[in-house]
Amino acid sequence: MVRFFSPGKGQAAAPPPVPEGQRDAAAALQLAIDSGHAAAAPTAALNLGVLRAGHGDTAGATAAFQLAIDSGHADIAPLAREQLGHL
Questions:
Q1: Exposed (0-12), middle (13-18) or buried (19+): which is 11, by Cβ within 10 Å?
Q2: Are 76 and 68 contacting, i.e. CB atoms less than 8 angstroms apart?
Q3: Does position 45 have pLDDT exceeding 90, yes or no?
C-alpha cells in the first residue's frame, strides 16, 4: 500500500525531506531504469514511483509509473497503471 503525504490545513504542499538511504535507493532504481533491461527497468520504474509517491512527489511518481506502463511489461505495466490511479 502506498502512503501519501497530506499537508495539514494551512501548510504548503511541500514533500517531506527524503532520508539519505532512500535517496540512495532512488539512485539505484534510476540506474536499473537506465539499463533498459526488459524486466529490471520496468520493475525499477514501478518501485521508484512508489518511493516518490510516498514522499509526496506526485510529478516524479507519475513520470516513473508512466515509464513502467510504457514498457508494456505484462506483469508490471498493469501494476503501475493501478498505482497511477491512486495518485
A1: exposed
A2: yes
A3: yes
